[in-house]
Structures are given as C-alpha cells and as structure tokens.
Amino acid sequence: MTHHEFILAGTGGQGLILAGILLAEAAMLDGRNVVQTQSYGIASRGGLSLAEVIIDDDEIIFQQVRKPDCVLALSEEAATKYEAWTAKGVTLLYDNGLVQPRGGANCHGRGFTRAAADLGSSDSANIVALGALAAGTGSVSLRSLQRAIEARFRPPAREQNLRLLAIGSGLAASV
C-alpha cells in the first residue's frame, strides 16, 4: 500500500505535533510525498492537540485525512473523539496508562508513558508511540525516523530519543 493517513491526537504539551513532523520528515527521507498539518486548542498545554500526516508515493491531491489507517491517541479525550473509526476498520493505538481500555480487534493499548518513564523520560511517550506506529504500519522506515531524530536533536537528547524510538518499535507487535 503506497497511501497512508494518520491522526496523532492527545493533550497539548505531549509532543504529538513534533511526532507528526518527525513522521513527515522520515517519509520525505524515504522519498515519499507528504502532507502534515497540525491543530491545537487555544491552550498550548491541556487542550486537544493533533497532527495529521498523509504519506503517498503519488501526488497528494486532497490534503486532509479522510480515512486514517491509524489513530494514535495519548489522551482519553482523543480516544473518545476518534474511537468510532475502529468500526470502519481503522486501528486505534492508544497509551494504556492514560486511556481507558478499549475493546475490539482494532483497539491496541500499549504502555508508551510507562516505557518512557522506565528510561527516565516520562515526557517522551510521543517518541515511544511514534516508534510503535512506524514499526506497526510500515509507513516509513525506522532508519529514516532515526535520521530525522538525529537531525533534530543534539546529544544527549539525540541518544535518548533513539533509545525511546527503539523501545517503541518493540511495542508494535500486532498493530
């Protein structure tokens, strides 16, 4: 499949806009066409925040997500807002430490915040979740995501984010 659409949603301050930008940059490094948009409430921390990313080998004509392949939810509000998509076959990937458990074959809870906290970076659940999203969907290569992180961060944050990404890719099973 050459066309992928994603919604990354949660609470302002969780780094989902950054995760969307990194996903888009990785897709460009893979030689793909990309559209990345972002939206957030008037409160920079605490309001609903989301990034939409469309990746395609062909030209992208319509620049809004119409039917996501996967919704990444890092808050209860985001999961509630987008969970109806699961009835249409869309995967809901959520942080099971921040979101109430969801039933159904298309709902996958993972411990993103817990995994980040185990590495001493509880604020970096977005990078763990991004690793799981990328590995689980195959939408971008992990090498390109690593390159995007290497270009954006300086040591020691660079090395820590690469570790978080690797942990996240290991959480992708059955996504």
Features of the shown structure:
175 residues; Pyruvate-ferredoxin Oxidoreductase, domain 3; alpha/beta; 6 strands; 38% helix
Your description of this structure?
The chain is α/β, with parallel strands linked by helices. The chain has a single domain (4-170), classed as Pyruvate-ferredoxin oxidoreductase, PFOR, domain III (Pyruvate-ferredoxin Oxidoreductase, domain 3), CATH 3.40.920.10. The protein has helices at 16-29, 76-82, 112-118, 125-137, 142-152, 157-170; strands at 4-11, 33-40, 48-56, 70-73, 91-95, 107-110. It has a 6-stranded mixed sheet with strand order 2-3-1-4-5-6, sandwiched between helices. Strand 2 (33-40) and strand 3 (48-56) form a beta hairpin. Helix 1 runs parallel beside helix 4 (125-137), helix 3 (112-118) packs across helix 4 and helix 5 (142-152) runs antiparallel to helix 6. The two termini are 16 Å apart. The mean pLDDT is 94.
